[in-house]
Specification:
By secondary structure, the chain is mostly beta strands. It contains no helices and eleven strands. The chain is 0% helix and 59% strand. The strands form two sheets. Strands 2, 4, 5, 6, 9, 10 and 11 form a seven-stranded mixed β-sheet that branches. Strand 4 and strand 5 form a beta hairpin. The chain is elongated.
């Protein structure tokens, strides 16, 4: 079993910045892709940013040039630096990680979510 613990959410004014962190722990042989999703009230959960173990990244068009995803493989931790925040970025942000056991079997895990609120 793998646990993902997120931190760093909060309330910020438009134009401000926040940094989210997500640390994976538990029975981990290897962590693969990691990423951040968000869900606003009444909306479906959507991908914000993802990063492979090798550092390749992918972003939603709405956050390109404002958000940056990174990871520390030694710490099994993924980060999301959010700059130039807009009220439309308000949502619950969820961390996602693909974890492999020693037999190569993959499971997907989710964090509990952290609220990000951007005031205008």
């Amino acid at each position: 079993q793998v646990q993902l613990v997120e931190s760093g959410g909060g309330l910020v004014q438009a134009g401000g910045s926040l940094r989210l962190s997500c640390a994976a722990s538990g029975s981990i042989f290897r962590i693969g892709n990691m990423g951040w999703y968000r869900q606003a009230p009444g909306n479906q959960r959507e991908l914000v940013a993802a990063i492979t173990r090798g550092g390749n990244t992918n972003y939603a068009d709405s956050v390109k040039d404002r958000f940056s995803v990174s990871r520390d493989n030694a710490k099994n931790t993924v980060y999301l630096q959010m700059n130039s925040l807009k009220p439309d970025d308000t949502a619950v942000y969820y961390c996602n990680a693909q974890a492999y056991d020693i037999n190569g079997f993959r499971s997907d895990y989710w964090g509990q979510g952290t609220q990000v609120t951007v005031s205008s």
